[in-house]
Amino acid sequence: MSVHYTLNLRVFWPLVTGLCTALVCLYHVLRGSGGARAEPPDGTDGGFPLLKVAVLLFLGYILLRCRHAVRQRFLPGSPRLGSHSTFSAGHFPEPSLGILLESYYEHELRLSPHVLGHSKAHVSRIVGELVRAGRARGSPGPIPGGALALAFRGDFIQVGSAYEQHKIRRPDGFDVLVPLRLPPLVALEPRSLGPEPALAPAFHGCFVCALKAPPGASGSHWLRDCKPFADGFCVDVLGRRHLSAPLVLRWFQAHLQRSLATVRYSLEGRCRVSLTPGGLEQPPTLHILPCRTDYGCCRLSMAVRLIPAVHLGDGVFLVAPPPSPSPVGPPSELPGGLRTDALWGVNTARQEQKLLCWVQERAPPGACYLKCLQLLKALRDLGARGLDPAATAQWGRILSSYMLKTALLAVLLREGVPAQGWDEAHLCDRLEELVQFLRDCLLRRQTLFHCVLGPGGAAAEVGPLPKVLREAAPVDLLAAFDRQARELAASRLLSTWRRLPQLLRVYGGPRYLDRCPPPRSQRAQGFPEDQP
């Protein structure tokens, strides 16, 4: 996707000031080294004093900064932002909100394409070496290797907002799928749990994967041959062996630790790496810290969530499901003889990337739909201010980045990608439309369907899907939340929207955001930021 470069005044003017000061210093050094110079008759120094030059440059910098601040706060209009309507009872002065949003976006949300590009390239190199080492090591643990070994496929897939050009604030978090290769003697029979009426709505988007013999294998011999694999990675559900996400996660984390020990020495000159296990519910996180001898321009500490994935076909993967927002008890208490450790979630990140590319091809040049999504994330973060930890976590789950992206795609696809109305001049109108759509989903419709697995879906735009997904029931992303939680979220969303100018003025300073970083509760739930 295309990116737009704009001048960053916070960097430009200090750079100009420092460069001019350096030139003045160099001039005085060269002039002083040229030998003694004649003194004026009155005994005064004929050269312009260095102190005066530095003071003048500093005063010029302060004057320009003050002029920029006054312009951002009090300018009565801007050619980039047009008029916008009011929303419910919250009425904003027409120029005020647009200018505040533009300033907030430029100073707090927008990522430097240069820094983001360096960060993604660095992550790609480190993860690539780790995955190649993991593939070469084979399978550790009770299954020594060979025909019944679970192993890395050898590639990795970069997913999430950093790779879809709508990440905000800092390029310090990434999601990477690591596809796994099943043994040749093992095949999977996935099944959607959508039609199960006895299950809670939170599980209707999950899948179970029973083991089955590949074509041509004998039943009795196959059961005996694959017993080591079934004992290490499967649980029993209704008399059949099913692949278990927690057991696969446990193997995956142990295998990553061994692979990291293999490549750690070769990475010492570039960075320091460590792995934080995620337990039996969350994928592990690879921490990449800059080396002390690294004098590159992008010395950032990054966290990379490495997600084990089982390929279903056509770019769709099974991953560990997100933790349920409410406790469901031990596995034996699930209806229908099911167990929570046999459940899997579905990842359609490749299809969603294709859908965003399809939208970009049909949207007018300079369309602001991704910018609206970034500002909607900022609205979510501002709305979490002042909440207790439990309420913050619930707020972050209901309005997760994936929910917001799904809402944006639903608005874009509702009547086809519009040819007009998504340019910068209508930014406030489009942001208001997204807030209204989310309010309707939470209160009136009480549903927000998956952009790929919803009714009708977007199969024509993203290409073919595996048969098990085409036949699955539509996935409602809001089904896991009760009516009270949805009403509270909608009420706070509207309150945050109405107070947005005041919130932007209070929390819009970079120094405040450095002291109090925005909540990242959706990433603390053990599931990728941009996945359901």
Short description:
The protein is α+β, with helices and mostly antiparallel strands.
Give me the CATH architecture of the domain at 113-137 and 149-326 and 334-347, please: 2-Layer Sandwich
Average per-residue pLDDT, rounded, comes to 78
The sequence of SSEs as H and E is HHHHEEEEEHHEEHEEEEEHHHHHHHHHH
Strand content: 5-15%
**Helical content (DSSP H or I, runs of 4+):** 40-55%
Distance between the termini: 23 Å
Please count the helical segments: 17
Give the radius of gyration: 28 Å
Uncertain runs with pLDDT below 50, 5 residues or more? 1-5, 43-47, 72-95, 140-145, 327-332, 510-528
Shape: globular
Number of strands: 12
Summing up helix and strand content along with how strands pair, one would put the structural category as: alpha+beta
Oligomer: single chain
CATH fold-level topology of the domain at 113-137 and 149-326 and 334-347: Beta Polymerase, domain 2
Q: Identify the CATH class of the domain at 113-137 and 149-326 and 334-347.
A: Alpha Beta
Which sheet architecture does the biggest sheet show? 8 strands, mixed
